[in-house]
Structures are given as C-alpha cells and as structure tokens.
TrEMBL record:
Name assigned to this protein: DUF3261 domain-containing protein
Keywords of this entry: Signal
Pfam families reported in the protein's UniProt record: DUF3261
Signal peptide from the UniProt entry: 1-23
Length: 200
C-alpha cells in the first residue's frame, strides 16, 4: 500500500551488515494503488526532462514527525532514488529502468524498508505529467486531476485518495522546490523540500 512510503521516513535506527539486492522480473512495472487495485508505471522518459536533485522529506505520521534526506536522479532511461540516514549512511537505492525495478538495501531491515514500487509510485504520481498517467489509470477507473499548483488522485468511486500541493504551477520535466503530499484515506502528510530545484 501507499502507506509503506511513510515507513522510509522512520529509518533512524542503528544499521549494520552487508547490502542485499532485490529485483523484480524484467516486465514487472505494476504497482498496487489500493487493495486489489494495481496500475502500471509510466516510463522514465515520460517525465519530460533530466534532473539530479537533493531533497529533504518530512513526514507527519501518527502524531510524530520524521525527516529523511534523499537524492533523486531522473533521465529518459531511468529513475534512481537514494535514501540516507541522518548521519549519511545509504539506506536504500531504488532504480526503475526498462520496466525493471531493483532495490539495493542494507541487510536485516526487511521489516521496515518499504517496497520500491510504492516509493516510485508516490514519486511519479507527484512529478510525472497527468497526461503520462492518464492511459495507465483509465483501465482501473482512477483519475489524476491537475489545476495550477494542485493535484488530486481519485479512485473509481470518485473519492479523493491523495492531494498534492506545489509551491508553483507544475512545469514539465522539473522538480518543484516544495511539494506537499497528503494521503486522505490513510491520514498522513509528507512534505518534500528540494534543495536544488529543477536539477541540471
């Protein structure tokens, strides 16, 4: 579930051990939006640009606030998201390329590390153009609506699942300086501050 994305924020425990690599089949780019409802991801190229940015993610989750530094790279070929601990240790690297999703994570943290599909889905719903998402959401009856600095993701019954706010009108192929992502059904809020907005 999307809920797992917030778990990434609470990885502030002492870490030891080697890295372990988990991968999905070559054709596997299908992600669960809700229980029993899945969607395929748009391609990296549909982002419409190339960026390399550092971000600070803050989450309000069950009455507690958590912070996670990340580095995001997007090109026409792939998407890479790296999450770090507060002291700079790399916790996870999620890569989406040619329909293949890979996760390189520290061993021994399977209980708290989120599914790479969920991380990338939240990221891509926030940053990829609505037009890129439309053909993927239409078969399941979901919609992503954008107005100026605001996006709404609705399920097949028309209920709002996610609301996204930007600090400026959405621009193709860029990463805004500030994003607020609120999951209405699972009751958590994430804010993303981009330290180098719009990348290279």
């Amino acid at each position: 579930m999307i809920k797992r994305f917030a778990f990434l924020i609470i990885l502030t425990i002492s870490l030891m051990g080697c890295s372990t690599l988990l991968s999905t089949p070559e054709s596997d780019n299908c992600v669960e939006l809700a229980k029993g409802v899945s969607v395929t991801l748009p391609t990296p190229a549909e982002f419409g640009g190339s960026v390399s940015v550092s971000q600070l993610i803050n989450a309000d989750w069950e009455g507690e606030a958590h912070t996670l530094p990340v580095h995001l790279e997007i090109s026409s070929e792939r998407v890479v998201l790296v999450g770090f601990s507060a002291w700079g240790t790399r916790l996870i690297t999620a890569t989406y390329e040619k329909g293949r999703l890979e996760e390189d994570a520290l061993a021994g943290l399977g209980i708290v590390l989120p599914d790479s599909r969920q991380i990338l889905m939240n990221l891509m719903i926030t940053l990829w153009p609505v037009e890129a998402w439309a053909p993927h959401l239409k078969p399941i009856g979901w919609t992503l609506i954008e107005q100026d600095k605001h996006r709404i993701l609705r399920d097949a019954s028309g209920e709002t699942v996610v609301e996204i706010q930007y600090d400026e009108p959405f621009k193709l192929g860029t990463v805004p300086a500030f994003i607020q992502y609120e999951h209405k059904q699972q009751h958590y809020r994430i804010t993303i501050n981009t330290l180098s907005p719009n990348g290279r």
